[in-house]
Amino acid sequence: MPRKAATLTKLFVLDTNVLMHDPTSLYRFEEHDVYVPIATLEELDQHKKGMNEVSRNARQASRFLDEIVSKLDSIEEGVPLAPHSHNAATGRLFLQTQAITGDIPLSLPTSKVDNQILGVVLFLSRHYPKRQVILVSKDINMRIKARALGLPAEDYFNDKVLEDTDLLYAGLRELPANFWDTHGKGMESWQANGQTYYRIKGPLVTSLLPNEFVFQEGPNPLYAKVLKVEGKQAEMVTVRDFSHHKNNVWGITSRNREQNFALNVLMDPEIDFVTLLGQAGTGKTLLTLAAGLAQVLDKKIYTEIIMTRVTVPVGEDIGFLPGTEEEKMTPWMGALEDNLDVLNKSDDDAGEWGRAATQDLIRSRIKVKSLNFMRGRTFLNKFLIIDEAQNLTPKQMKTLITRAGPGTKVVCLGNISQIDTPYLTEGSSGLTYVVDHFKGWPHNGHVTLQRGERSRLADYAAEVL
N or C: less crowded end of the chain, CB within 10 Å? Predict the structure, then answer.
């Protein structure tokens, strides 16, 4: 049983879904103690079979628990976590070592695991009145039930990259109206390859990041990209104008400022990792495919496009589909088909036969892969597109991005307000995780697309519905 509140650290009771979401959560509570009820272990046991992420996490959590308690004769007094966590956690781990009958209301069936865990929390909070006993659960209903019984309950926050996604790095910023007054002194400017370069000093410089886009509207608009920041001076270069037809990418031109920025990072061979965030209809997939085709078929920088996405259905799952890996993935790739239709139509002069030939050529260079078979692969000189990346956990995202071999460019597309994976939120999505962790790396590009470009109907619907 947990020690008396000599140090008055908190006692966190873990629900099963926390361990299945992040097995390392045992080591994430710093100086506080962690309590694992028998019901939690029972549920872990039920979920250990299978090949999905949840089952893998359940097995890993069981291994961690075994590692912590296996070498001890008695676990009554709790097991110190410090030796197992490189001193990251200095509290103790307690397992339920006796039968506990918490006085939960009779209307709550004790056969349900959630209610057994609530009974344990109730018992512990009465047993240690001076100590804060807190239930940690990813299940909203479980937290509501706990609070209804007067028990403190919290979500597991440790996996959250950002508390408020409004603070997420946007990849672009508007310069203040007085920018040149405060930053123009001693400015150097020169031209090369049809672009203008600036070297500036001033108060804003320290907050700029490499590959961040800066813009200023007005009579003399400026659209530039930060090249590097060294101490108190930054170097910027004006961006290419992809809205002009002579700079079209596979027949596609940018329709707004953010799309122009996106095409600048997609077409830059120096940038290995691109993330594009945006609502439905902002052109993420179309711009990426156009840039991919231009660099695979015209410039021959990459050998082929590989497209993958998480197969989390919005409705019911469609079961086991017949055919090869490519054919099984086809229903998930409706977005790819729609965008290829647009890209094929852009070549009007070729005639029916020419278009058919182009279509076959394009098809031969785009491979659709399932995420389930990505482990252990290495992609060389490929243009890898990860669609619907907001449904990936940070761990899955790491697995995918580390597949990239020499000469491969990885593009992640997603809309963090459309997450279908259970227990994943805007703050803990793998997409938010990589945007936040990659910002400032010289070979990373990120743009948040703002304006929908589908149709006036889609734009109005997005606004009013």
Answer: C
Half-sphere exposure of 114 (CA within 13 A, CB side): 14
Residues 383 and 413 sit within 8 Å (Cβ to Cβ): no
Which residues, in sequence order, are CB contacts of 306 under 8 Å at separation 6+? 366, 367, 368, 369, 379, 382, 383, 384, 385
- As beta bridge partners, residue 168 has none
What's the average model confidence in pLDDT over 171-179?
A: 90
Residue 226, both tokens = 């930060």
pTM as predicted: 0.74
Query: Would you tell me how many other CB atoms lie within 10 Å of the CB of residue 406?
Result: 9
Q: What is the pLDDT of residue 314?
A: 38
Q: Give residue 382's region: left, alpha or beta (phi > 0; psi -120 to 50).
A: beta
Q: In what order do the strands lie in the sheet with 444-449?
A: 366-370, 304-309, 382-387, 409-414, 273-278, 444-449
In the chain, % of residues over pLDDT 70: 85
The pLDDT value recorded for residue 24 is 84
With beta carbons less than 8 A apart as the criterion, state whether 294 and 306 touch. Answer: no
Strand 382-387 versus strand 409-414 pairing type: parallel
* Percent over 90 (pLDDT), the chain: 28
Asked if 128 and 2 touch (Cβ cutoff 8 Å), the reply is: yes
Mean pLDDT of the chain: 83
C-alpha 426/C-alpha 131 separation (Å) is 33
Q: Which two tokens stand for residue 402?
A: 């580390």
Q: Which tokens in the block code for residue 150?
A: 């007067």
Task: Indicate the helix (H) or strand (E) that contains 18.
Answer: helix 16-21
Burial grade of 379 (CB within 10 A; 0-12, 13-18, 19 or more): buried
Any residues with CB less than 8 A from the CB of 326 and at least 6 apart, and which? 367, 368
Dmax over CA atoms of the chain, in Å, equals 83
Residues 224 and 221: their CA atoms lie apart, in Å, by 10
CB atoms near residue 20 (< 10 Å)? 25
| Residue 165 CB neighbours (<10 A) | 17
Give how far Cα 66 sits from Cα of 54, 70, 251, 360, Å: 18, 5, 59, 55
Q: Note the pLDDT of residue 200.
A: 92
